[in-house]
Amino acid sequence: MKKFKFTIGGSNYSVNVKGIENNIAEIEVNGTPYEIEIEQEIKTSKTPVVLVRKEVKTKHGDERMKENLSPVSEEKRPSSKTIKSPLPGNIIKVNVNVGDSFKDGDILMIIESMKMENNILAEHDGKITKICAPAGKAVLQDEVLFEIE
Fold this sequence. Notes:
5% of the residues lie in helices and 45% in strands. The protein is mostly beta strands. The protein is elongated and about 100 Å long. The strands form 3 sheets. The protein has a 4-stranded antiparallel β-sheet, with no helix packed on it. The protein folds into 2 domains: 2-37, no CATH class; 79-148, CATH 2.40.50.100. Strand 2 and strand 3 form a beta hairpin.
């Protein structure tokens, strides 16, 4: 609550502002309560309430865009049987080659993540059909490392 003292036409007034909501103020002048309307421009927030993203317009003939939107060829599609990275990191060493068979618990690859070397172990027996992440590549979590059968 703010208190003000005014002198208007030689008369003294004690004004207490109890609260202001939008453009209505509750005040008390010399002990008598009043609700008054403030005639001023209401300030609006600079931050928009809803952000709407504009539609992205592509340039006619943009070959990269067409390439990105074209279907993936059959040989580049991952198979349904894959081994994915459990964490992001850099591939240090790949211990298997295409065509190699592996057993449950074998170390297939070593990934460095947060300055620690992590072994990627086989969860079941299988055979490597494709290596998707060679040594030196940086991978994200859930990125395909191997395709298996």
